[in-house]
């Protein structure tokens, strides 16, 4: 289990988008037009969301590396990151700031289309000095060659790397070799590890020290150096799942960076992600640390949830 590198800063390197969100009765099927509600414009992007979650939910000292355009959308993101206490290291691009088109259904599920824009300008040479950085958090909304170069540079510098494999895609072997913690949802896990075998079997094929799959309302399952850890989801009334996965990743990195053991960090991240689903929006939905700690202290745990989660994942050993 990874326990080192506590006390340093969290650097999130990745995407920053402005989200254009419409709530609708359901997510349209191909060829279908659905009348929705009013358009909401909010700051988002997987990287920026994870940076806000690390800073706001865990209180970790957090730096964000992102490529932004010279436009009003960039100003929206700059204000949001600063408001969460994130120190922004911006790379300027002639391309427009990234954008995401999001439809949210009445049940809280979402469908997202991303226009990467300036995010694709982030280059391997843009990585800042890693002095004082304990954890580097990466996603896949920037060029894969850049993500790989960042991970390899961090590994060389002794910085721990957390990779969120979103959006779903196959990963080059040289990237996986530089990752300490991999976080994927069920669809993303299938892209990385295939669809054969149980979730537990697939986690075992990845090869990183820690591999975690998030399973929405079921919870999450981790394989850490041969030991499985199960974290059932907290029971909340979800209205919008946008940024729930990003909140999990950012809160997890922040908790690990502050020295929490993996089971504690997963519980903390799960609580933060659950709270994010109870509010609309991306960065605006991410809770503060006091809220997360209150949910952990008072959250009702279904006594059968761990057994159900173990059965779903194919875990036959007792969780620690």
UniProtKB/TrEMBL annotation:
Transmembrane segments: none
Stated role: Catalyzes the phosphorylation of ribose at O-5 in a reaction requiring ATP and magnesium. The resulting D-ribose-5-phosphate can then be used either for sythesis of nucleotides, histidine, and tryptophan, or as a component of the pentose phosphate pathway.
List of residues binding ATP: 185, 214-219, 245-246
Species per Swiss-Prot/TrEMBL record: Sphingomonas hylomeconis
UniProt-recorded Gene Ontology molecular function terms: ribokinase activity
Keywords, sorted A to Z: ATP-binding, Carbohydrate metabolism, Cytoplasm, Kinase, Magnesium, Metal-binding, Nucleotide-binding, Potassium, Transferase
Subcellular location as annotated: Cytoplasm
Subunit note: Homodimer.
Co-factor(s): Mg(2+)
EC code(s) of this entry: 2.7.1.15
Taxonomic lineage from the root: Bacteria, Pseudomonadati, Pseudomonadota, Alphaproteobacteria, Sphingomonadales
Record-listed K(+) binding positions: 240, 242, 276, 279, 281, 285
Protein name: Ribokinase
Catalysed conversion reaction: D-ribose + ATP = D-ribose 5-phosphate + ADP + H(+)
PROSITE patterns, per the entry: PFKB_KINASES_2 (PS00584)
Matches recorded under PANTHER family: RIBOKINASE (PTHR10584:SF166), SUGAR KINASE (PTHR10584)
Record-annotated active site: 246 (proton acceptor)
Pathway: Carbohydrate metabolism; D-ribose degradation; D-ribose 5-phosphate from beta-D-ribopyranose: step 2/2
Residues involved in substrate binding: 17-19, 45-49, 141, 246
Protein family: Belongs to the carbohydrate kinase pfkB family. Belongs to the carbohydrate kinase PfkB family. Ribokinase subfamily.
Cofactor annotation remark: Requires a divalent cation, most likely magnesium in vivo, as an electrophilic catalyst to aid phosphoryl group transfer. It is the chelate of the metal and the nucleotide that is the actual substrate.
Record-linked InterPro entries: Carboh/pur_kinase_PfkB_CS (IPR002173), PfkB_dom (IPR011611), Ribo/fructo_kinase (IPR002139), Ribokinase (IPR011877), Ribokinase-like (IPR029056)
Residue intervals of the Carbohydrate kinase PfkB domain: 10-287
Ways its activity is controlled: Activated by a monovalent cation that binds near, but not in, the active site. The most likely occupant of the site in vivo is potassium. Ion binding induces a conformational change that may alter substrate affinity.
SUPFAM superfamilies: Ribokinase-like
